[in-house]
Design goal:
The structure is a homodimer of 580-residue chains.
Chain A (H helix, E strand, L loop, with lengths): L1 H11 L1 H6 L4 H28 L4 H6 L3 H9 L7 E2 L2 H11 L2 H6 L2 H21 L11 H24 L9 H11 L2 H16 L2 H9 L4 H8 L2 H16 L1 H4 L24 H33 L5 H17 L6 E2 L1 H9 L6 H16 L9 H12 L5 H10 L1 H16 L2 H21 L3 E6 L6 E3 L11 E6 L8 H14 L4 E5 L8 H16 L3 E5 L3 H9 L2 H5 L4 E2 L2 H8 L7
Parallel strand pairs in A: 5-6, 6-7, 7-8
Antiparallel strand pairs in A: 1-2, 3-4, 3-5
Amino acid sequence: MPINKLKQITSKLPLNKSLVSYDWQTFNSDLFAGIITAILLIPQGMAYALLAGLPVQVGIYTSLLPALMYVLFGTSRVLSVGPVSIAAIMVASALSSPEIKALGSSTQNAMILALEGGLILTIMSAFRMGSLVHFISQPVLSGFTSGAALIILFSQFPNMMGIKIGSCTSITECLNNAQSSLNIFDMGIGLLALATLLLMGAPLSKLLVNLGTQQTIRTGITKSAPLLSVIIGTILVTAYSLDTTHSVEIVGHIPQGLPAIGVGFLSTSYDHFLALLPSAFFISLIAYVESVAIAKVMASIRSEKIDTNQELTALGASNLAASISGGMPVAGGFSRTMVNYSAGAQTQIAMLIAVAVISLVLVSISQSLQSIPKAALASIIIVAVYPLVKLGSVVNVWKQDRSDGISQLITLLGVLILGIEEGIILGVIVTIFCYLRRTGKPHIAVVGRIHDTEHYRNIRRHKVETWDNLLLIRIDENITFANINFISEFIEAESRETDAKNIVLIFSSVSYIDTTAILYLKELINSLKHKGVVLHLAEVKGPVIDKLEKIDFLKDLLPGQVFFQTTDAVKCFAPNINEA
Amino acid sequence: MPINKLKQITSKLPLNKSLVSYDWQTFNSDLFAGIITAILLIPQGMAYALLAGLPVQVGIYTSLLPALMYVLFGTSRVLSVGPVSIAAIMVASALSSPEIKALGSSTQNAMILALEGGLILTIMSAFRMGSLVHFISQPVLSGFTSGAALIILFSQFPNMMGIKIGSCTSITECLNNAQSSLNIFDMGIGLLALATLLLMGAPLSKLLVNLGTQQTIRTGITKSAPLLSVIIGTILVTAYSLDTTHSVEIVGHIPQGLPAIGVGFLSTSYDHFLALLPSAFFISLIAYVESVAIAKVMASIRSEKIDTNQELTALGASNLAASISGGMPVAGGFSRTMVNYSAGAQTQIAMLIAVAVISLVLVSISQSLQSIPKAALASIIIVAVYPLVKLGSVVNVWKQDRSDGISQLITLLGVLILGIEEGIILGVIVTIFCYLRRTGKPHIAVVGRIHDTEHYRNIRRHKVETWDNLLLIRIDENITFANINFISEFIEAESRETDAKNIVLIFSSVSYIDTTAILYLKELINSLKHKGVVLHLAEVKGPVIDKLEKIDFLKDLLPGQVFFQTTDAVKCFAPNINEA
């Protein structure tokens, strides 16, 4: 029966789990959180659409259907999916190239990016390829985020200050341009919005804490700052007709009503889809990585569990929804999620309510949005994005781990100098290169026995027993093409320094050995045999011994043996073991 | 004093070591081996020059100065450096592109390739970057060699058979072309040479063994096969004027005397050098990998030691020498080296003698080389290259190791379908991708104690003790961005399946932990804390504990502890330990 089937399907959706124990108290929390989130989402959505170079309504549309899709399919109960700053600047970068501009309107291009991103995420989900994104390491992600945030700040600062720098080749020329284009009214509104946002942030929050205000109420008040700043700006514009009398830039006409659902944007050439594909790939990858990172932080706070593969499906569906409802690529946003959570959202119902509120605004009072000054929106972006610039992190990571520091710095510089996508690619390549270089020089230790025990430790770090006729070498990594040369040379060098006729390789850390490594090991065995030295193995793990048996390696090893324990080898070759 | 200085420098050259204990007996061996090698090198050098699309004398020139350079700088006592088949086909592939052809004559292009390759190898040597080539894994090298050898066979088969297939689009058209162009005299000479080579190979060798002939004499006789096959061909051509009467293709004019030394080929554009650089990079890389592989095999047989970085210098010098003496890129060749060795070469003096013999031929009887039929040279190439095609190896490697098998097969197909350089790049990318995928799923085991011991083993493979309140998890690999997600999910999944309130991660195999991994571990610690589970570490290695202390990780771990031994953790959390 189809209804049973439907029940079966819906029972598997993550949302269903939240609703099993839903009650009025939870609903009250969700209702409040939903309204607060909507208050943030409207101005933020508009701001990010401007950042992406799109009409402001695209940002609002993107806060509707995609958010619903995430509510249906996502595994985080509080993640808020919609337009986000990093995805927006990536969209801006993709849409700014002349070849892309020639192919279609920016709105159509944004919809195609969302569609392709959605498909890529869905395919990755179907093939369970979510682990691919782990190649974007934390330092690369962090360097990338700082770089992208800096680009956003550079792009929005002139908007907030009411200046147009245009194209200039020298600093003097840029400054001249800035001065001649400066609109003191834009600047006033921008700085007023900035002041509102900053004062209603930490200082107001501190004051409210001192007054003993409840946390959710506090969030409600402080997070209304963006709304308040655009209201102030809008009132000023409307009261003095600043847009017509003093050329203050405003958002302009916004179509009334909900976005049309449709696939009309698909009627274009094959080349058009192809041209946007690389950008869609990077946008969706970064959107996924950031969403999962935020979802995980929230899940850790709320003791929930994120299913990373289900997140791929959910984000894929959200992006597909964005594409057919006139939206732009989406991701889980940090600030919107934090608002939702700290306003007391208990379940995804809060996001449903936020969507309902935004829809209500669109069908009723969308006209009143058209006088919002762009400078105020620029201030909202700057305040939202500023915390993402973490240059101190570059220094910290550099101190902790040189190669991670290099990856982070190169990604950051790559983003700033070469471009956003180029920066990620460069960062990933550098990370993989450093990784291969490091695994190419694995940790190997000559070990000896700690007196009166069966423990073997590095002779350089511990006071241990060693024996004349026996050299114990512990290899601390899987043996592959990347490191076998280093390992062979290490063993040969150690062998030359002693008279030991038996070398035991301790394989306790070796879980895998590849074809190249086996070939080199055979060469090593032969080369040592010529010098009268026999190679043995000890503590070989199950999967490794299975493989070595399968390819008859143990015959090549003869007269070398495989010892279960290192101690067995010591008993065999070091006669004084019995005295211990 | 300059002479003392010179002595100081020469005393460091590898050659000097061989000469310390040189005597007449060794010289006799070297003399014989040198003559035999020269007999092989002349026809083989000519053949490989033809394979590369160059005038035959280039192949002979390349056997002189480059070989001397290797004698001076190389660390292998028997490696014979000169024109080789794989480098020759790579040169042919590089020179065949119309853009390259437009820039200069093929001889000039070959000299530039040798120059650039020599510089690349020298730079790699100076920066001790020899380890870079280890990213060309054995399966990739093997797949590449088989693929390149197949291309050589396809290219030389028509030459041996006296047919010209030209450009054809269907099999019928190709066959028609073949039939109409067939020259029965070329074919006869080619097949006669083939028969000579095959009969003088294994069958003759077997016969001589049965007759009790000495090994060096046997080598002398069997390895003269190429010389004999060209002599037969040349006699037939000369006796019946086959070149003029029946259009049999012969080598043609060869300038008398030694090659001119000079740098005239350098007078060209910057773009010309740039255009050849990528090919030079791949040729020199493969030349180096193959030379070192052969040198290592020989060193293992002769109980010698190869210094891989010195080999870079030596091959760099050889290629530079090739470029200024009218030569093509060089490498250590397997067949020429085996001839040298099995003819009884004791030191590099054998190669000096071979060079002297070849020079003598060039200054005295080079005219007599001009009637050598090309079909006979094609047969020499085919017989030399055929053993390099090892398709069985693809099957074997596939059975042993799936990802190595995939790399090898993709490299082989890449070389055949996309091209020689593209094949290597593809192979390296696939290898690195498989490597990252594999290290992304490291071996992790829940372990328990083997009764009455302090040994801990995988609970799935051994009969071990476990405890209700303690979960022991051994991580068998370094923890990095590539695998931390898998590791966290494994630990969380195992934690959900037990009531244990203490989880001990055994770090005995962990030598390195990166920034991403530390961040995820902190998240994991917090997430477990919410469930009342405490994470501990045990058997943490020196470098890892140093790093964790440096970044205050141990504070984040609290109340989790770091245990020196796993047994210490068991004593702490499993009270029944004392009964054991």
